[in-house]
Specification:
21 strands; alpha+beta; 8-stranded antiparallel barrel; 31% strand; Hypothetical Protein Pfu-838710-001; elongated; 3 domains; Nucleotidyltransferase, domain 5; 17 helices
């Protein structure tokens, strides 16, 4: 049985007016009643259709996210216990079998339904089959218990042809989701993975979260890569070629990883560096061409809101006033709140990359240079003056998480240790003095400091220290959560 490469996506509006299918006549139309056997353990394809137990297995996922599916068997009911066992082992389930043969209804009632790791979904399909650019294409209206949707599949033995056909059809930005994975998401059976990418001025942050049926999130991947997208931006007023190439390469690798991890959807947002750059469409286009993902450039206020959402989702409700601030490579965001009610949110264009470049803070600096940098930061944070001092201050972002990791001398970053760390004036001042008296290369060897942040950590620490003073605080609490967590919860938490 020849394996085929398949791409599939879901959506109620697929095939509507203006789509690649709207002006085509189908080669044939079919209606069928089917039952998909879904597993908590994996997303292999086992179904009952036309009186057959039909099994396909996933052989490979390529760089474009295409899946190569291999037909394994089609057995007519009644099916022997050996064939039932083989099909269930494909789903990593091994329930006891008490019959020598099984009808379809016996299999469902006596084996699948009592097995907690398995779930049967009855679906009705209205399928239209097309030939599109040499590929088999199928537009299906899908009905199942509790809902209905539409799905498009494009397949061929030639993966390059499938990729080209998907791109030509204008669907390259949509994620490839197999029918078993799609049905699991639609029916709320088993965990689902979603990915978010936060494209910042200094680093790109990548998070893959897994959402369980009870609405709880767990982390599959959470990492960042320093790409210095904003390098030279303050001097030239534009994003420069080399930083864009570094950033596009990092994003492409993250998208590849998300697809290997079978994320159902991938969202990417850009912050201050992209907001400021008049040529931001160059990077957006590079990323779209390489990955099919479009970076959404969000406002400073939206950035502040998502950071606040991320932080408060992990905190208990509290009385009193609170400020949450997030300092990054190109800007800093502030949220003022009291009794869990947001009073004000805004963004200020002060970030570690520009301060580093303006005052040459990447290496050893004099007392005079440090004082000048602190004065400039204080001036740019002047909008904080006159605000009432909060009862508590919570900080997020790479600067504070690195300060916390250095405080704890973490040779390996541990979010559970960093989250909730209290940084006082004395510790921040100690680290400022440490960084201002060391070269970039020496900073890379400081235990706890991410090597890629060696150049900008002094500027970041100075912004944190100045914010502390402006808000009349002697200490702050570090949150390991950030914009990416807020984005994940808001866009995918209610799926």
């Amino acid at each position: 049985m020849t394996p085929r490469w398949e791409w599939r996506t879901f959506g109620d509006r697929l095939g509507a007016e203006g789509s690649p299918f709207s002006d085509l006549q189908p080669e044939r139309v079919q209606d069928s009643d089917e039952v998909y056997l879904l597993s908590v353990a994996n997303d292999e394809c086992v179904k009952i259709r036309d009186g057959l137990l039909d099994v396909k297995t996933l052989d490979e996922v390529n760089r474009d996210g295409l899946e190569q599916w291999r037909p394994v068997s089609k057995q007519a009911f009644p099916v022997s216990s050996a064939d039932v066992r083989a099909a269930l082992e494909t789903l990593q389930a091994t329930p006891a079998l008490e019959r020598d043969t099984y009808t379809a209804e016996e299999l469902l009632a006596e084996v699948v339904e009592p097995t907690a790791t398995l779930h049967a979904v009855r679906v009705q399909k209205h399928r239209k089959h097309f030939l599109l650019n040499g590929c088999m294409a199928e537009l299906t209206d899908l009905r199942f218990d509790g809902g209905a949707t539409r799905t498009i599949a494009i397949e061929s033995e030639d993966p390059a042809l499938v990729t080209a056909t998907v791109e030509d059809a204008g669907m390259g930005s949509l994620e490839n989701v197999s029918l078993p994975r799609g049905l699991k998401a639609l029916t709320g059976f088993g965990p689902r993975r979603y990915a978010v990418i936060d494209v910042g001025t200094n680093s790109v942050k990548f998070h893959v979260g897994q959402l369980s049926p009870d609405g709880a999130w767990s982390t599959t991947v959470d990492r960042s890569e320093v790409t210095r997208l904003g390098e030279g931006l303050d001097e030239t007023g534009r994003l420069n070629a080399e930083p864009m190439e570094r950033t596009a390469n990092a994003i492409a690798a993250m998208v590849d990883e998300a697809r290997r991890l079978r994320a159902l959807e991938i969202d990417a947002v850009g912050t201050a560096g992209l907001r400021l750059a008049p040529n931001r469409d160059e990077l957006v286009g590079m990323v779209r061409e390489r990955t099919g993902i479009t970076i959404e450039v969000i406002s400073g206020e939206e950035e502040a809101r998502l950071a606040y959402l991320a932080v408060t989702a992990g905190l208990r409700s509290s009385s009193g006033s609170r400020v949450v601030f997030d300092t990054g490579g190109g800007s800093s965001q502030f949220t003022y709140a009291h009794d869990d009610i947001v009073d004000e949110q805004f963004s200020l264009p002060v970030g570690a990359v520009r301060i580093t470049e303006t005052f040459a803070l990447a290496g050893v600096v004099t007392d005079e240079t440090l004082a000048a940098a602190l004065d400039a930061i204080a001036g740019e944070l002047a909008p904080l003056d006159g605000h009432p001092h909060p009862d508590a201050l919570v900080a997020v972002g790479g600067a504070v998480t690195n300060l916390a990791a250095v405080k704890h001398a973490l040779a390996t970053y541990d979010p559970d240790v960093v989250n909730g760390t209290v940084l006082g004036e004395a510790e921040i001042d100690r680290q400022i003095d440490l960084y201002r008296t060391t070269t970039t290369e020496d900073r890379r060897h400081i235990v706890g400091l991410q090597p890629g942040r060696a150049e900008v950590i002094l500027a970041g620490a100075c912004i944190v220290r100045t914010t502390l003073s402006k808000l009349g605080q002697t200490e702050l609490t570090v949150s390991d959560r950030g914009l990416r967590h807020g984005l994940l919860a808001e866009r995918f938490g209610k799926r």
